[in-house]
Amino acid sequence: MKTNYLIYYVLKLITKGQEWQYKNLNGKGDRPKLYFTQLQLIALLISILFVYTKPKGLSNEMINYVLSSLSIMTALFLSLIIIIFDKFNNFNFKGEGDDEKIHKFHMWNFFYQFNAITSYAILISTSVIILLVFTLMFGKEIDVSQYTFVSYKLVTFESILLFLKLLFVYSIRIVIAYFLLDFFILCIYAISSIFQYVSNEFIKERPNIKVNREESINDTMQEEYGNLPKYLKIIFIISFILAMLYVLF
Predict the structure, then answer these.
(1) What mean pLDDT is predicted for residues 104-118?
(2) Within 90-212, where are the H helices?
(3) What is the structure's pLDDT at 130?
């Protein structure tokens, strides 16, 4: 593949992937004033704090876990794109009434949005994998806590090069942490989008049947399992409190 084509396709993917993060199913939406959304700003802040509190970077074991997880999620997203594209090819976008036309228009936007954001998530995942491999090869042994600032009178050419090197390491680690968080945000979006799509299809085909008696889940569990669900709920709450106390103290 020619380099120009590769650069063009990657830039196109980044542009569409970011653009459709801010649009709704009507195709409307504006980019945030600060470029990042609120979730992305929080992710960026967490990334900076994480890198600051982890001067040695991620351990080899953690990097292996992250690489394995990203590989699995990338394969899953590729499968989802193929499935969605198959649904797109079999979907009839011709509608008769206004409501049906609006529904078809929303579905077209959903397919396009899901493809753009999911492909963008795969690109982020691939970038993180490359950066992690790069970190293992060159920057894993750098412990930035071993270095301190010196007076400007003691600044030398070597110290400037060292500062640039540490700044580069910090930047790479922040980018890795931010991309990971952004990737998981996109994962949640993809899952919720699939749920929304399936729910819309279910609602459209919902039988017109009225149920005279509504039974709550609590009544059903009480009837089938007695007081066991209550005991399990109490055990879960106590276990959660003990786990939090163990982590904090």
Answers:
(1) 84
(2) 98-134, 157-204
(3) 86
Lowest mean pLDDT among 85-94, 135-144, 163-172: 135-144
Residue tagged 């396709």 (tokens): 9
Angle, vertex CA 201, rays to CA 195 and CA 207, nearest 5: 125
Whole-angstrom distance, CA of residue 97 vs CA of residue 112: 23
Do 131 and 177 contact (CB within 8 A), yes or no?
A: no
CA proximity to 114, closest of 74, 80, 137: 80
Alpha-carbon span 160 to 43, nearest angstrom: 30
pTM of the model: 0.71
Burial of residue 57 (CB within 10 Å: 0-12, 13-18, 19+) is buried
For residue 221, give the H/E element and its range: helix 217-225
For residue 229, what is the DSSP state? H
Residue spans of the domains in the chain: they are 3-209, 216-249
- In the chain, what are the helix, strand and coil shares in percent, each to the nearest 5? 75, 0, 25
d(CA 178, CA 46): 8
Residues 6+ apart with CB under 8 A from 174: 44, 47, 48, 51
Rounded Cα distance between 104 and 116, Å, is: 18
189: which residues sit within 8 A by CB, 6+ positions away?
A: 21, 117
* Residue pLDDT, tens place only, 78-106: 888 888 888 888 877 776 777 777 778 87
